[in-house]
Design brief:
The chain is mainly alpha-helical and 347 residues long. It is built from 13 helices and 5 strands. It has a 3-stranded antiparallel sheet, covered by helices on one side. The chain has a two-stranded antiparallel sheet with strand order 4-5. Helix 3 crosses helix 5.
């Protein structure tokens, strides 16, 4: 049984040859497809017979390929795809949260600028700059947002975000405490968990909002004398082994290995927990000075180490810094304030 049918139809009142093959319609106005110099207008019956003969001999109409017009990718779609990719890659929850926030902010930016449905092919560096440079965003915030935005668009515009130059943020240093014991006593009276966080920031030189907040008992040695942090748990990206002073050991009681030392469960406290507690303590305190923050305990601890050891290399290792230049910034106001790394003795 044949799976084709040939008829004579009309198009715009003119005869055409219509072939149904595998239930797909094909229309022909002449015999070029079968190398026959006949038009349907001149002799439709002869042309019909010619097509039928070719079909019996094995000729078949070429398959119709639907041309799907590829629509340009919207910037919002590209950003969302970037977020999905980062989730699949197992990026940190903090980064994923920031990335999702970028998508929300970009949608708001498009609405405000009347750029709805902006596509990747129309995206320009000026759009990125206008998105990043805002009156209520500091230079540091702009750079932070840029560093989150860039990998989300890297598949579509590898270099566009990086090509946007931003103002370098002014370096600010958390003011150290001259009366660290007095401040610690005040914090202890206010909140025990905040006190432990401050004490470890000062005595162990760990960063409070992630490194300390996420500590579990398995990070401690059996005798609680050392903390072991893998590279993915600290800012430097390097494995760190940090001594735990006796005044910290005296107030901690080891719990279940997989439990967080503050929450007492498998999950750490929320990322703003100590930030919020410190803000509340600061509002009711009369002993803090302008510029003193949670990180001031780390700054004060760094100065104390240098005063006792006189060793920048020990300070660098204790702080987990990648270079001496970073460690030197903690010593402003001391007699080494004008030193630079290149001024230091060579080995």
């Amino acid at each position: 049984m044949s799976n084709f049918k040939v008829t004579i139809g009309t198009s715009k009142s003119k005869p055409i040859i219509v072939i149904y093959y595998d239930e797909i319609r094909h229309r022909y106005w002449n015999g070029k497809a079968i190398n026959v110099n006949i038009s349907s207008k001149e002799n439709p019956n002869l042309l019909k017979a010619a097509f039928e003969l070719k079909l019996r001999e094995g000729w078949r109409p070429p398959s119709k390929k639907k041309e799907v017009k590829e629509l340009p990718v919207k910037v919002t779609q590209a950003l969302q795809k970037g977020v999905d990719t980062k989730i699949a890659q197992g990026c940190s929850q903090r980064f994923i949260k920031d990335a999702k926030r970028i998508v929300t902010l970009w949608k708001r930016y498009e609405r405000e600028q009347r750029l709805r449905n902006l596509t990747i092919d129309k995206l320009q560096a000026s759009h990125i700059r206008n998105f990043l440079v805002r009156p209520n965003w500091s230079a540091k915030t702009q750079r932070t947002v840029k560093s989150t935005l860039s990998p989300l668009l890297s598949e579509f515009t590898p270099n566009l975000v990086q090509s946007v130059r931003l103002k370098k943020p002014t370096s600010t240093l958390h003011k150290p405490f001259d009366n660290v014991n007095e401040v610690l006593d005040a914090v202890r009276d206010y909140n025990q968990q905040l006190y432990l966080c401050c004490l470890m920031t000062y005595g162990c030189l760990l960063r409070p909002h992630r490194e300390i907040r996420e500590l579990t008992w398995s990070d401690f040695s059996e005798d609680l004398r050392y903390i072991h942090l893998s590279g993915n748990r600290n800012k430097s990206g390097r494995n760190r082994i940090v001594p735990v002073p006796s005044y910290v050991r005296d107030i901690i009681v080891k719990g279940e290995s997989n439990h967080n030392i503050f929450s007492g469960s498998n999950k750490p406290l929320n990322q703003d927990y100590f930030k919020t507690l410190w803000s509340r303590f600061k509002r009711q305190s009369d002993i803090l000075e302008q510029g003193q923050t949670l990180y001031s305990f780390r700054h004060s601890g760094a100065i104390e180490i240098f005063k006792r050891t006189g060793s920048l290399h020990k300070l660098q290792r204790a702080m987990g810094h990648s270079s001496l230049n970073v460690s030197l910034t903690y010593l402003r106001g001391l007699e080494v304030a004008e030193l630079k790394e290149e001024d230091m003795p060579m080995v």
